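Handoff note, outgoing to incoming analyst
You'll be picking up this chain. Sequence as last confirmed:
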Amino acid sequence: FHYQIGKEIGAMAVVMKGQVDQIILTGGIAHSRYVAAYLTKKLSFIAPVEVMAGEFELEALAAGACRVLEGRERPKHFALPTAQA
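Most recent structure output, in case you need it:
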């Protein structure tokens, strides 16, 4: 489990050409001190690791979508770096 999470985050760092500002651990895994410590130790060479334990991620996403649909907030657009030949 820990190994797979580390691999996936590492793979994303490669896709982003190492341009990673921060790694944020959230959701259920962030509640485990052991998992958070393990992943922080393994991944901190890529970027600083922040642990933000919480269980209301879906509610926060839905609230953000509602704000955009109601015109109270502009959507944010994120793009991966483009491949260069």
